[in-house]
Amino acid sequence: MEIEGKVALVTGAGSGIGRATAIALASAGASVIVADIDEAGGCETLCSINEAGGTAAFIKIDVTRQEDIERMVAYADEAFGALHILHNNAGVNAGWPRYPGGDHAEWNRTLAINLWAVISGTEAAVPLMRRSGGGAIVNSASLAGLIAFETDPIYAATKHGVVGLTRALAFLKDEANIRVNCICPSFVDTALPRRRLAAMSPEEREAWEAALTRVPMMEPSEVAAAVLDIIRDDAMSGEAIALLYGQPPRSTPPALAIG
Q: How confident is the model at residue 102 (pLDDT cuts 50, 70, 90)?
């Protein structure tokens, strides 16, 4: 898909990967809806786009609320009259102590933001994308959705869910000209790992820092560039794209193929 002239919507666009993707989409010529619960962060992203000569609008939403999801998609229609690109990006981790310790409320919040909001956001976007002639949806999963990520099992469960949903929606390409894919980056230098690190015990922090020596953190801009490549690739549908530091993006097929 050619990005210039399209309408894009990015959740969690007030910081990190979402901000980098929103700015990159605007730089490529898209009109961007910046969506986030963090009004200050969202407005900073909006200002960055406007100062660079891009086109964007901000809406404050809570992706765990169905009515907010629907309002977000309706706002894209009201502001720009269409929707061609959706980046379901908002995400959190489950925090500490690690499962099976921890707070059920935090688990439910993680499930709601990381998985339910992707399900709901996609559902809300499809009718407007159909009316707009089709589109591309990129879900933010994680390498934790492809491996046994023992550091945060609840987070891993949500990201495995995003990968499974993405693969199961490959049929939308033929039915509605809507391609659904997901990006599965390893460690990215955003607020999420920094908050996780701050909550760790000294022993956990030592293990985490040792892991980072083997798999260094990527910059959000690197993930954003991969997201735009996925959007532009009209052949890609139902794919989980692994992204590791220093390596090119690569499609990761399911472990088991039936038939």
A: confident
pTM of the shown model: 0.93
92 touches 140 (CB < 8 A): no
240-243 and 250-251 as β-strands: parallel, antiparallel, unpaired? Answer: antiparallel
**pLDDT tens, position by position, 33-52:** 999 999 999 999 999 999 99
Q: Which domain holds residue 130?
A: 7-237
DSSP code at position 218: B
Structural contact between residues 21 and 224, judged by C-beta atoms closer than 8 angstroms: yes
- The answer to whether position 247 is within a domain reads no
Note whether residue 42 is domain-resident. Answer: yes
DSSP track, 213-244: HHSPPBPHHHHHHHHHHHHH-TT--S-EEEE-
Strand, coil or helix: what is 6? Answer: coil
Cβ neighbours around 150 below 10 Å, total: 10
Distance between first and last Cα of the chain = 31
Those residues with Cβ within 8 angstroms of residue 197's Cβ, 6 or more apart along the chain or in another chain: 205, 208
Q: Is residue 255 part of a domain?
A: no
User: 245 lies in a domain?
Assistant: no
Count: domains in the chain: 1
Catalytic site residue 245?
no
User: Residue 144 has what DSSP assignment?
Assistant: G
pLDDT digits (tens, 9 = 90+) for 138-179: 999 999 999 998 888 999 999 999 999 999 999 999 999 999
Query: What's 78's domain CATH number?
Result: 3.40.50.720
